[in-house]
């Protein structure tokens, strides 16, 4: 049995007339009748009651009509979806992000999803170091990450800069003041930091920021992920320096203070495997470029 047999059968079943079905199929009536007879022989069942005046489906024909319509409908959907995947209009897109889903990242994801309803976004929270590896190994398609970035394998561009703020337990004496804080006031405070191997750029910037202020952070606790870091700050384990993207998470147990005299910021970049990017990943990259601040249009 071939797909054309089902198409011929469906046409006759819909019209209940061999002549009209043949005209729709752009073939002559005798070959159509022969194809239907071959189909009946192959299946081993009569599909139509035929008289000189009428054609109607047998019970077996009614069943095959329902099944054949479903098969052809599924085939049409499959071919349409396959075509969309090939052109990057549909499919699954694995997206990594560091820290947490900031409002900036969410804007990009929402805009793309609104315009590509057939795309399934699969989100993975992972460190910048892990994203570099996952992108190179094609375990994720897109990464929102901080430097350093493997420029040999990955394509990337800058999206946002997030200034640093100090995250304090609300019960901390320094949380009583709402004015920008001098980092020298944090001397001797227990710092909570990410492991340098996971977020080298973020870690090094904070160390450099503190060193310029004349202090060396007393790192008492390392924690993977800014969500965990903020939970430890909320529990009173220590303090931390985080980005304003992380500070979008407002909790009663945490108080954020701007840093006096510092304009340092951590850059967020979008990266992809430029050597082996899928059509969908390439489409996402182009869509995300709209969100680059101050780009020439």
From TrEMBL:
Gene3D superfamilies: Periplasmic binding protein-like II, Winged helix-like DNA-binding domain superfamily/Winged helix DNA-binding domain. InterPro entries: LysR_HTH_N, LysR_subst-bd, WH-like_DNA-bd_sf, WH_DNA-bd_sf. The keyword Transcription regulation applies. GO terms for molecular function: DNA binding; DNA-binding transcription factor activity. Pfam families: HTH_1 (PF00126), LysR_substrate (PF03466). GO terms for cellular component: protein-DNA complex. Keywords: DNA-binding, Transcription, Transcription regulation. Residues 1-58 form the HTH lysR-type domain. The keyword Hydrolase does not apply. Belongs to the LysR transcriptional regulatory family. This is Transcriptional regulator, LysR family.
